[in-house]
Design a protein that fits this description.
Strand order of the largest sheet: 6-7-10-9
Helix content: 10-25%
Strand content: 25-35%
Bound molecules: zinc ion
Number of domains: 1
Shape: globular
Oligomer: single chain
Largest sheet: 4 strands, antiparallel
Length: 198
C-alpha cells in the first residue's frame, strides 16, 4: 500500500522566520518590557511553533528583541557586525525622515543630508539567512535587487500604540514595534528635492 504523503511541519528558521507570530500567540495587553528598558509595551503570548505561522505578522516581543539585540529575524541568532544585510531597507536622508515625523527620534547632531538605511521593523539578517527569509515575505516587499550591508551604527525608534490602563481606563502610550535605522557615512546634497510634496 502506498503511504500517504504527509508534509513535514514547517520549521522555524528554515521555512518560517523566527520573528513571526503563530496563531496560538494571543495579544496579552500591555506592561513593562525589558526590550524597552521597562517602558510600557504591547505584550503577546510566547508560544512559537504552536498553531499556524502568521508570516505577515511580526511577534511583538520577538520583533523588539530582534532590533534591540540585533538578532536575525530568520534564525533568531545574533548577527555579527560584519554579517548584517537588508534588501527591504531604503536609503533616505535624515532630513527626509525628519520631514516624515521622526524629528525627536533621530540624534539632533545628525545632519539632514546624512544618508540613512531605514529598515523599518525588519532587523538586518545573516547573509546565509536572506534567501529563506525572502521566500517567506510577500513578493511586493522583495523588489529591490540590491542586498545592502547594514552600517556599523544605527538608531532604534520606538513606534507607539495607544493602550488603556486596566484600572483607570486612562490612555497610555505603549511601544508596539521598534524601527531600526542604520547611519551610513554618505551624504545626499540634494536631499531637499526628495522631501514629501505638500
Ligand atoms: Zn540568521
Amino acid at each position: 500500500m502506498r503511504q500517504p504523503v504527509v508534509p513535514a511541519p514547517p520549521k522555524i528558521g528554515v521555512d518560517i522566520p523566527w520573528v513571526v507570530s503563530w496563531s496560538e500567540e494571543a495579544p496579552a495587553g500591555v506592561g513593562p518590557c525589558p526590550t524597552v528598558d521597562g517602558q510600557v509595551a504591547a505584550l503577546q503570548a510566547w508560544k512559537p511553533g504552536q498553531g499556524k505561522p502568521l508570516n505577515a505578522r511580526n511577534h511583538l516581543r520577538r520583533q523588539r528583541d530582534s532590533v534591540r539585540a540585533m538578532l536575525c529575524p530568520m534564525c533568531g541568532e545574533p548577527t555579527p557586525d560584519d554579517d548584517r544585510w537588508s534588501r527591504t531597507g531604503r536609503f533616505v536622508a535624515a532630513g527626509v525622515l525628519r520631514a516624515r515625523g521622526l524629528t525627536g527620534a533621530l540624534p539632533a547632531d545628525l545632519d539632514d543630508d546624512r544618508v540613512l538605511l531605514d529598515c523599518g521593523s525588519i532587523a538586518p539578517l545573516h547573509f546565509r539567512c536572506t534567501p529563506a527569509f525572502e521566500r517567506a515575505l510577500p513578493p511586493s516587499l522583495v523588489t529591490d535587487p540590491d542586498l545592502k550591508g547594514f552600517p556599523p551604527s544605527w538608531v532604534v525608534v520606538p513606534l507607539y500604540v495607544e493602550a488603556r490602563q486596566s484600572v483607570t481606563g486612562k490612555a497610555v502610550p505603549a511601544v508596539s514595534f521598534l524601527q531600526v535605522v542604520g547611519i551610513t557615512n554618505d551624504r545626499d546634497p540634494d536631499w531637499r528635492s526628495r522631501l514629501p510634496q505638500v
